[in-house]
Amino acid sequence: MNPAEIPTTSVSELPTEGAVLLDVREADEWAAGHAPGAVHIPLGDLPASTDQLAELPDDRPVYVICRTGGRSARATMWLNSAGLVEAVNVAGGMKSWQTEGRPLECDHDGAEPEVL
């Protein structure tokens, strides 16, 4: 798949409810701040995560997000090529998510969520 053919959307175009979000950032990035309800599978773990990927819905798009959009574009390309899900890259990633004022949560008690 050619990079120009990767299905892409912006954070502002994401549905505010019911969207399936797959976060492919590393564990420390995830722990610092992530979207509520997102599924976390680091990019390097995707090929070995077939059981987790099989749990994602196959009747609607899975929006793939990282920090700014590079890793999620590679993940989207891989997921679509493998035919595992209908993946859509989220341009601008979690940085845009934060800028758009979308909700964030973190895994550190008492800490403010942040995008690393």
Structure description:
The chain is of the alpha/beta class and 116 residues long. The protein has 4 helices and 5 strands, in the order E-E-H-E-H-E-H-E-H. The protein is globular, with a radius of gyration of 13 Å. It starts with 7 loop residues before the first strand and ends in a 17-residue tail after the last helix. The model has no long low-confidence stretch (mean pLDDT 92).
Outline of the structure:
With 116 residues, the protein is α/β, with parallel strands linked by helices. The chain has helices spanning 27-32, 50-54, 70-82, 93-99; strands spanning 8-10, 20-23, 39-40, 62-65, 87-91. β4, α3 and β5 (87-91) form a beta-alpha-beta unit.
List how many beta strands DSSP finds: 5
CATH superfamily: Rhodanese-like domain
Number of helices: 4
Helix content: 25-40%
| Mean pLDDT reading | 92
Domain Rhodanese: 15-106
Pfam families: Rhodanese
Keywords: Transferase
GO molecular function: transferase activity
Q: Any chance you could write out the topology, listing elements then pairs?
A:
Layout: E1 8-10, E2 20-23, H1 27-32, E3 39-40, H2 50-54, E4 62-65, H3 70-82, E5 87-91, H4 93-99
Parallel strand pairs: 1-5, 2-3, 2-4, 4-5
Highlighted features:
single chain, 5-stranded parallel β-sheet, Oxidized Rhodanese, domain 1, 116 residues, alpha/beta, 5 strands, globular
